[in-house]
Design brief:
alpha/beta; TIM Barrel; two-stranded antiparallel ribbon; disordered N terminus; binds S-adenosylmethionine; binds iron/sulfur cluster; molybdenum cofactor biosynthesis; iron-sulfur
Length: about 375
């Protein structure tokens, strides 16, 4: 952002005025206590915080085979900065729910300490973790002990070969062991996220649902979004929410869940086995592309480097890390975050007729670098 001469600047930690970090002006007419409002009347209360851009899988719809250039450790928000930022979000801006994500958050060495600090500061805050579950078998008990509320695990296939094809790593058994241990230590309700790829794992949808129902897990299918490093997404190739429902109806009866959606990204369906009047459980479908829910979006995202993204598909980011590393007050950090969210776009731009509309421009960051 360009700044004009004479604009007040916050001081760096060395005490010098740092012109690259102008004092946040805030949004005219909004008080900090108004929270993370945007121009369209939405208020973000659900914070998605990425802890790292690194990952130990290479899911084809997310990362390139060779990985990405990882951020240097100094560029990541530190444990103390994370704790401060969450405190500002909760105490000043009305954040009600926190999801830790990545990259793969389990690769962060101080994850258990971060969660313990967050829990000590916010005894009632729901804190969940989105993970690929590699190594969760060893860490689940410590995470539970530290105060983690719940986990979301990404699992796209129950076949070792298909799993390896999708993640480019042969680790299905280890992921299943992680999920089992998380359920055993009480990190439930366990939610399972699956992305279906046409001709690879889409026929597995009913098997995945059967598996999840038998274990009391809540399965959610996520439509593949154009956020992959390889730019491999195509409208023809993606499996739509309608395709998922058709696949599931090959084996189950689906009925709309009577509970209110209440801003949740997943549209929930009750699942019945044929001939049974008792639901066997529910399934969620997150149709970000074909049935977008932008009008009800309550999310604010912070990347591992402390950049606010008001939307997954944003092309703009707002730096909070520089403020956190200056002598800025909590209120100044809150004002800058509020400014960033005020500019949240109305919708992500993929929901045109035709969907592969030429005016949709994929953001530079991949899903792993944003924090899904
Ligand atoms: N590594 C963790 C994991 O896989 O759960 C957390 C980060 S990952 C980016 C978060 C979620 O984003 C996962 O559920 C993953 O399936 C999903 N995801 C990644 N790329 C996606 C894409 N292009 N479209 C839809 N979902 C995607
Ligand atoms: Fe890693 Fe998660 Fe991306 Fe897969 S989806 S490559 S596990 S960050």
């Amino acid at each position: 952002m360009g700044i004009s001469l004479g604009m007040p600047a916050v001081r760096s930690r060395t005490g010098a005025a740092d012109a690259s970090v102008p004092v946040p002006a805030g949004v005219p007419g909004l008080a900090v206590s108004d929270g993370l409002m945007d121009r369209f009347g939405r208020r973000a209360t659900d914070m998605r915080l990425s802890l790292t851009d690194k990952c130990n899988l290479r899911c084809t719809y997310c990362m390139p085979a060779e990985g990405l250039q990882w951020l240097a450790k100094d560029n990541l928000l530190s444990r103390g900065e994370i704790v401060r930022l969450v405190r500002v979000g909760v105490e000043q801006l009305g954040i009600r729910e926190l999801r830790l994500t990545g990259g793969e958050p389990l690769v962060r060495a101080d994850l258990v300490d971060i969660i313990a600090d967050l829990r000590a500061a916010h005894p009632e805050l729901p804190i969940s973790l989105t993970t690929n579950a590699l190594g969760l078998d060893r860490k689940a008990a410590a995470l539970k002990e530290a105060g983690l509320t719940r986990i979301n695990v990404s699992l796209d296939s129950l076949h070792p070969g298909t799993f390896a094809q999708l993640t480019r790593r042969p680790f299905l058994e280890r992921v299943l062991a992680g999920i089992e241990e998380a359920a055993r230590v009480g990190l439930g309700l366990v939610k399972i996220n699956a992305v279906l790829m046409r001709g690879i794992n889409d026929a597995e949808a009913p098997d995945l649902l059967d598996w999840a129902l038998q274990r009391g897990f809540e399965l959610r299918f996520i439509e593949q979004m154009p956020l992959d490093a390889d730019h491999g997404w195509t409208r023809e190739g993606m499996v739509t929410a309608g395709d998922v429902r058709a696949r599931l109806r090959e084996r189950f009866v689906l009925a709309p869940d009577p509970r209110s959606r209440d801003g949740a990204p997943a549209e929930r369906w009750q699942v019945f086995r044929p001939g049974s009047a008792e639901p066997a459980g529910t399934v969620g479908i997150i149709a970000s592309v074909t049935e977008p829910f932008c009008a009800d979006c309550r999310r604010t995202r912070i990347t591992a480097e402390g950049q606010v993204r008001s939307c997954l598909f944003s092309h703009e980011e707002t730096d909070l890390r520089a403020l956190l590393r200056s002598d800025a007050s909590d209120e100044q950090v809150a004002l800058r975050w509020q400014e960033a969210m005020w500019g949240k776009p109305k919708a992500h731009g993929m929901d045109h007729v035709g969907l592969d509309a030429e005016d949709y421009v994929q953001p530079d960051r991949t899903m792993s670098a944003i924090g899904g």
